[in-house]
Amino acid sequence: MRLSRGILILISCVAMLGVTSPNDRIITDPRSVTSPANPGAGPISINDLYYTRSVFAPSWSPDGGEIVFH
Predict the structure, then answer these.
(1) What are phi and psi of 37, to 5 degrees?
(2) Are 44 and 33 in contact (CB under 8 A)?
(3) 68 near 56, Cβ under 8 Å?
(4) What sign does the dihedral 22-23-26-28 (CA atoms) show?
């Protein structure tokens, strides 16, 4: 009982070491954020925009490069 309590306290202390506060984070410069140009991109029609209301269950693609909807 005493050993398990000590292990629990030790695990809690180690877990708290990994916690960072928002003040520890570096602010990203918006000018440093870039995205590749897509020459195939264009305006979306109202009809196509209407059908986006029927998509659901977004998840990342296996390679992590796109979001897919089921």
Answers:
(1) -75, 145
(2) no
(3) no
(4) positive
Give the residues of the chain that fall short of pLDDT 70.
Answer: 1-3, 12-22, 51-55, 70
Q: What's the pLDDT at 69?
A: 74
Q: What is the CA radius of gyration of the chain?
A: 23
Structure tokens at 25: 């984070």
| Angle ∠(23,26,27) on CA atoms, nearest 5 | 100
Work out whether strand 58-60 and strand 67-69 pair parallel, antiparallel, or are unpaired. Answer: antiparallel
- State the pLDDT at residue 25: 73
Do you know the residue count of the chain? 70
CA distance 52 to 41: 16
Q: What local confidence, expressed as pLDDT, does residue 35 receive?
A: 84
One-letter amino acid of 20? T
